[in-house]
Amino acid sequence: MPSALLQSPSQLTKTLEISASTDARSQRNLAIDVLRGYCIVMMVTSHLATDSLLNNAVHFLRYISGAEGFVFLSGVALGLAHQRRVVRHGLVEAYRLIWRRASIIWLVHVATVFIAIGIDQTIHRYHAIPSLSGVGWPWLIWSTLTLSFQPGEMLNILPLYVFLLLGAPLVLEFIRRRWTIPLLIASASVFLYTQWHPAFGTWNDPLTGRQAFPAVTWQALFIPGMVIGSNRVALHRWVNGPKRRIILWGVGLLAGLTALVILVPTPLFTINDHMRWDLFIFQRHPLRFGRIIYFYIEIAAFYFAAQAWINGRLPRLPVQFLSTLGRNSLYSFLIHLVIAMVLAALFASYQTGLMGDIITIIALWIIYWMAEHQIGRRIIPN
Predict the structure, then answer these.
(1) What whole-number distance in Å separates Cα of residue 46 and Cα of residue 157?
(2) In angstroms, how far is the first alpha carbon of the chain from the final one?
(3) Quick one: how far is CA 17 from the chain centroid?
């Protein structure tokens, strides 16, 4: 474990200043943007055409979806950005900016839910929105404002970020005060408790019946991400130190082995009875420990692969495409939401066959083109 996780407040301040000067030159970690962009692609393909060849291709790693990657990488990005903000604006202002971000996402969620309900009640019936017959508008408005009403699929993820961001300053205070190890132990303990009691820390409204992305469970991805982002300089030195080759080979072999055991249903791997264990160990709702462990192993390998791609003499178009989506994550999410709602209203069976692949590719290019040229950025937040 890098020694920076146990830095004193004065040492951490010095680390923040070094990181801020480094980020002032590079501004962003391109590998992180590429990985976030890939998560956007996974999200778009799964929402627009679940049964398409393209969706199966980008989800070639079984039991890893855009949700896990994006929650973790959002934590990493927050840790990276917070360092610069503390040096530039001060600690209190840096925390205020996090809460401001939470309020923006809350407003976006409330607005999208009300718009979707309005369309559902007047123009087109969406299967993801439960029946609202007999539900009074006062209750519906209140439950939406308090984030207890979370319609299915694309309209139930943003509340998770609101809760995670509201608690982020407390997490960052633990890191700043050199309490990182107790923080990680507490995070892991809460997550393990939810394996026995998945409803812990959640509430259900009578329409949706459950909370798809409970913050008390998904913090097991977000908090370690913030720790990694906050300790970028020390981790960078550790990974690029004398043992870099050993680390790369170790991560690569471990990622390949775990993927082989999980992906290949063969009698040779009798330790993993797919029929008996997969649903319990690798579920996403509720989020299970096997899925978390598998994700951390594979995301490490993906990060090194992204670095190699960026630094190598390989085609730049995928890097540009994915990094553009990654830099405009909330913007891309909202654009894809509009596209998905329009397609669902106009076409009943576009998700099947070759048409699903064609429409998904067109949608991805539209999102990229709009993000590249910042179309509508005055009214579409990011």
Answers:
(1) 14
(2) 34
(3) 27
The whole-number pLDDT of residue 102 equals 96
**Three-class DSSP labels, 135-179:** CCHHHHHHHHHCCCCCCCHHHCCHHHHHHHHHHHHHHHHHHHCCC
Give the span between the Cα atoms of 360 and 351, in whole angstroms.
Answer: 9
3-state secondary structure of 267: coil
Count the neighbouring beta carbons within 10 Å of the beta carbon of residue 93: 11
| CA separation for the pair 31, 229 (Å, rounded) | 13
Distance between CA 53 and CA 356 in Å, rounded? 8
User: Of 205, 112, 118, nearest to 162 (Cα)?
Assistant: 112
- Any idea of the CA torsion for 172, 173, 174, 179, to the nearest 10 degrees? 120
Q: Which residues of 135-168 are buried (b: 16+ CB within 10 A; e: fewer)?
A: eeeeebeebbeebbbbbeebbbbbbbbbbbbebb
* Contact between 42 and 275 (Cβ < 8 Å): no
| Average predicted confidence (pLDDT) for the chain | 84
**How many angstroms separate the Cα of 54 from the Cα of each of 158, 351, 354?**
25, 11, 10
Contact 323, 33 (CB under 8 A): yes
Rounded CA gap, 62 and 146, in Å? Answer: 34
Residues of the chain with pLDDT under 70: 1-27, 210, 265-279, 348-352
Residues 6+ apart with CB under 8 A from 111: none
What was the pLDDT predicted at 317? Answer: 80
Residue extents of the structural domains in the chain:
3-373
> Which distant-in-sequence residues (6+ apart) come within 8 Å of 369 by Cβ?
375
Could you tell me which residues come within 8 angstroms of residue 174 by beta carbon, excluding any fewer than 6 positions away? 180, 182, 183
Q: What is the pLDDT of residue 25?
A: 40
List, in sequence order, the alpha helices (H) in the chain.
Answer: 9-26, 30-48, 53-58, 66-89, 91-122, 137-145, 158-176, 180-196, 215-230, 232-239, 244-263, 274-281, 289-311, 317-327, 329-346, 353-373
- Residue type for position 379: I
